[in-house]
């Protein structure tokens, strides 16, 4: 596709439910990032993949959060036993650069998660 | 104190005005500085990217980085209603796999 695609766009989950958020990066992009954006805040880093390797997961807020990218392309962010504080927009970004993966990242439109 | 500080606004200006958006930061190791524009219910879109200190111009947009003061700016000339959005500064250093964002400044350009 032309850009980073995320699905679903909107997700309402009951507290305690497990959710899975999908990210399709731009074809050929080596680096993939997940961010969490609370209302009125800037995005906050969750985790980073280079191909299938998860190189940094320091931003994951708890062990209820898990991310994978098994074939180095599509990634899934899973949240177990959702809590109200998990309500946020989850953004995925991908980047072509291998030596400077932090820069020139292209973002998807995000998945808006509401936990009720 | 957060690593990146950005006044959230909101900022309202008339069409045609020059807009100045700013961020300060505390980590002197940051080397890459970016400005993103985010429309409501959309993902951030990269506007400008600068490495180290200096100025960079792209059309109506100018990005400035002053590493000695740990201060970055984005100027928008001849602002248009279509520029109404939230502007996010972001920065990182070599070898770091993530961006550190400011809170974002919400800009409204009135016709």
Helix and strand layout, with pairings?
The complex is a heterodimer of chains A (116) and B (111).
Chain A: E1 5-7, E2 10-13, E3 19-24, E4 31-37, E5 44-50, E6 53-56, E7 65-68, E8 75-79, E9 88-95, E10 106-107, E11 111-115
Parallel strand pairs in A: 2-11
Antiparallel strand pairs in A: 1-3, 3-8, 4-5, 4-9, 5-6, 7-8, 9-10, 9-11
Chain B: E1 4-5, E2 11-14, E3 19-25, E4 32-38, E5 45-51, E6 54-58, E7 61-66, E8 71-76, E9 85-92, E10 100-101, E11 105-110
Parallel strand pairs in B: 2-11
Antiparallel strand pairs in B: 1-3, 3-8, 4-5, 4-9, 6-7, 7-8, 9-10, 9-11
Structure report:
The complex is a heterodimer of chains A (116) and B (111). By secondary structure, chain A is mainly β. Chain A contains no helices and 11 strands. The radius of gyration of chain A is 13 Å and the shape is globular. The chains are: A mainly beta (116), B mainly beta (111). Chains A and B meet through strand 4, strand 5 and strand 10 of A and strand 4, strand 5, strand 9 and strand 10 of B.
Q: Which spans of chain B have pLDDT < 50 for at least 5 consecutive residues?
A: none
Percent of residues in helices of chain B: under 10%
Query: What percentage of the residues of chain A does DSSP assign to strands (E)?
Result: over 45%
Distance, first to last CA of chain A: 33 Å
Mind telling me the C-alpha Rg of chain B?
13 Å
Category from helices, strands and their pairing of chain A:
mainly beta
* Rg value of chain A: 13 Å
Q: What is the residue-mean pLDDT of chain B, rounded to a whole number? A: 93
Which structural class best describes the helix and strand composition of chain B? mainly beta
Cα(first) to Cα(last) distance of chain B is 37 Å
Oligomer: heterodimer
Number of helices of chain A: 0
* Pair with the biggest interface: A-B, 29 and 27 residues
What characteristic shape of chain A results from the CA principal axes?
globular
Largest sheet of chain A: 7 strands, mixed
Strand content of chain B: over 45%
Could you report the average pLDDT of chain A, rounded to the nearest whole number?
A: 93
Low-confidence stretches of chain A: none
Largest sheet composition of chain B: 6 strands, mixed
